[in-house]
Amino acid sequence: MPKSTSLWIDTAHHPDTSPLTRDANADVCVVGAGIAGLTTAYLLAREGASVVVIDAGSVGNGQTAVTTAHLSYVIDKTFKEMLRLHGPDGASLALQSHASAIDTIERICTDEHVDCRFERIDGYLFLGANDRESTLDAELEAARAAGAKALRLPRAQVAGFESGPCLRFPNQGQFHPLKYLNGLAAAIQRRGGHIYSDTAAREVVGGEHSCVRTAAGHAIRARSIVIATNSPFNDLVAIHTKQAPYHTYAIGARVQPGAITPALYWDTDDPYHYVRLHRTSNAELGGDNGDPVDILIVGGEDHKAGQAQDAEARFGSLEAWMRKRFSSTGIVEFRWSGQVMETVDGLAYIGRNPLDSDNVYVVTGDSGMGMTHGTIGGMLLTDLILDRDNPWTELYDPARVRTGAAVEWVKENINVALQYKDWLTRGDVASIDQIRPNNGAIVVEAGRKIAVYRDERGTVHRRSAVCPHLGCIVAWNPAASSWDCPCHGSRFDKFGGVFNGPSPRDLDPA
Questions:
Q1: Predicted local distance difference test score (pLDDT) of residue 148
Q2: Domain contains 442
Q3: Is residue 483 part of a domain?
Q4: 120 lies in a domain?
Q5: Which residues pair with 279 in a beta bridge?
């Protein structure tokens, strides 16, 4: 069986950090130690600001650990949609910001001597199974209108993959995301910043006496506060009606070094497939020598979070798709899943938090481009906190409304409303006795929905199945062994502990 973990987690260590044990003061407190939070902290520390970073887990333990780590300026929602939603100027700024994010990552790797296998590669967009070449023609026209250097080819000039007609986008990138975060963390600490792990934020207070209060009762007083927790836990509805949680899957299969050309590959299917190669070694994978090993990473099979429980079938579909198109792949050694926050207009929300004090900032809505959106977040928030102009401020403003996204907004919020019907449905099983070890299910006891997990020893763990955010019923996610909220994306570990907002706290005791 493949390892049920990401390639990144298996081949990187966590930096040496510890929990916060006292009150603290800083110019800026950053909540969240993923790529958005650490990039913000690093860039501010370079400017001489004092910074405190806290995370409920460890550095990179959130969604950065389960990305596939594509670094691309080609927008997931397509340039055609960017032109429709944001106009020519907005589409051009989106392109520029993501390209600048890749440049920033490369520069940080050089300046801080971060060994994370950063490299520049080409990207190729190819046709899905049922799409026509006119799809590529329309995207090529839109990409060029936004300023992208795209080229139409009869086939990708690569080894190991017969793409058919495609678009080539030069100068994309890739890296090992957790090794990159380890380098950022070390650079922050060298500049006097502090990073505290296992320190959960429970309350954010903006304004003149702004502070972050932790679950352990400590207070971090700061002039500015940045919430970089994938989905902000300090909002009830301001952001959450404008983005929706989607679950995505990935597998990693071994291939002979050199059999497939390193590049970013993705198709026009909906949901689409995305592919890249990562060079590692036998030693990093637990072998007894340092021989190079290539791992082909394939992702896709997305669905609304908490609204499907067929993980095995989705992993199987990914593998079948991979073997049909990349015939040189060997055994699947890794498989993992993650959550993507899709905004209604395809771009992240970065800036001052709506309906909050002016010194509270958020970065959320990765929209499938978390590595570049997170880096843009650090760049833009640094300018905002230091009161500098930035050409991307309006484009990423969390308070923005795009009239062209109204249909998507209505569709996603109707979907949320429909999830409340789960209060009236039966449980997943009629009896707790039907739950196998290492599995969870919803049961109904005295009219109440209970989230029940049975561990490997057979011990039963029971929590309320009601998400503390806005009262949706959570669902068991077998791919990640988590409880996921189908409404706004709160996620809880198998024992009910919250690890992804917007829920401000754990599932209640049953």
A1: 97
A2: yes
A3: yes
A4: no
A5: 294
